[in-house]
Amino acid sequence: MDETQSSLTHVHDFAFTEVRYVRLTGMPATQYGLNIWELELYGYTLDCEGAVEAGRDGSATVAATLAPADAETSFSVASMDESVVTIAGEARVDADGRVEADLDTHEPGATQVLLHHSRGDEVASCDVVVSADTARIDELVERANGLDSTLYTSDSWRPVLPALEAAKIVLATPGAAQQSVDDAAERLAAALDGLAKRDDEPGAEAPSAPRDVTASATAGAVHVEWSAPEDDGGATVTAYEVTAGDRVVEVDGGVLSADAAGFEPGTYAVSVRARNAAGWSDPSEEVTVDVSEDGQVAPTITVKGSLRVGGAIVVTGAGFEPDTEYTLELRSTPQRLGAVATDGEGRFALSTTIADGAEPGEHTIVAILDGEDIASARIQIAAAQPGDGSGDGDGGDAGGDGWLPSTGGDTAWVPWAVGGAVLLLLAGTAAMLIRRRRATD
Q: 49-91, pLDDT tens digit by residue?
């Protein structure tokens, strides 16, 4: 404290201390013109050491720190929710100012325990979380995470994802009630018990190998197309796996083309195999493709939606000429899907429906400019579901959910662009699983 007068300067030094309250008592000025002040400095700080987490029907200890330390003081303790925790005995304080109180835990939940200092107004509110028993829901979530959705019918798989998400939310919620955990576990268990495999018929066998495999390349990328197996083995084909050199691309069973980028110049072997509920087919006959350093990047078409007669789909494109109008057609028997205009970056999107008159089987969606085929996407269209006159857009058994990447030009080959990461995103490759695999002889 510094005090300056015209004739005298007083300097008062006080030892450092933690102070919460200061009381000053003054006396009227005396005949000598002096004021006499009394300063009383007192107070403490009381802070919890952190949140406490414990299991139900057990014990725990809540702790706080008192400064300055005072081993002779005492504390009162109270629980804000005695259905979660109750106080087991009196609080204790040691010479270092550490305050502890023992608790008994009960029902899962979150609450606070209050520690009140008897020599002051300090109150510490310490968080306490009592966790529910999550052993069963943990096991169910692990089981659901390990499932392959392509092996199950769309109708039976549909309840699994929301039930799984709800279970994960409950697990991530501190102090979730046991009833909430149990309810989420029951919903997830019911969804998993209701799963039905696609065409899970006795005697189903792995399909025959895909046919008519072709591969083309440009700008360090490879594009592969094929036809569906002649024999599906008695069960729906749910996925295809394309191997090009040391790269492996897996796409949905309704897609008949795939792309991979990042190839060095050279010659690569390419093969395709198919999967149904019974397993993988043998690989197709290998074809080879030569990758060169140069080459013009071709535009890309992708398809999303319900790949069945009457199904609603979204056709998107990237890498086309900017600000240009194209016509989209569905072939074999040409059916006009509509006209689209690209934006300034050469992209477009068209929402449309696969006509009721379309024949189930292999088809191609083509982008046309001035009578010339510019790019194409090869797809497999399934028959309409009974009672479903128009597609519901959920992906269906044939098309699956997600982006269905395919590219092409006059030869139905459309590579990935240089700067492949951007085009991968534009092409919607979220439905494509791309992984590395060691090249085999």
A: 989 989 888 999 999 999 888 878 889 999 999 999 999 989 9
Confidence (pLDDT) at 40: 54
Structure tokens at 226: 């094929």
State which amino acid sits at residue 435. R
Rg for the chain, CA atoms, rounded: 36
Q: Give the pairing type, strands 312-318 and 300-305.
A: antiparallel
What's domain 211-436's superfamily in CATH?
Immunoglobulins (2.60.40.10)
Class of 46-131 in CATH: mainly beta
Residue 269 predicted with pLDDT over 70: yes
Residue whose token pair is 């979220």: 430
| pLDDT, greater one: 420 or 283 | 283
95: phi > 0 → left, psi -120 to 50 → alpha, else beta; which?
alpha
Q: Dihedrals φ, ψ of 406, to 5°?
A: -160, 150
Token code pair at residue 181: 């955990």
For 10-40, what is each residue's pLDDT tens digit?
566 666 655 555 555 555 555 555 555 555 5
Buried b (16+ CB within 10 A) or exposed e, 216-239: bbbbbbbbbbbbbbeebbbbbbbb
Q: Estimate to the nearest angstrom the gap between the alpha carbon of 283 and the chain centroid.
A: 32
CA–CA dist 146, 273 (Å, integer)? 22
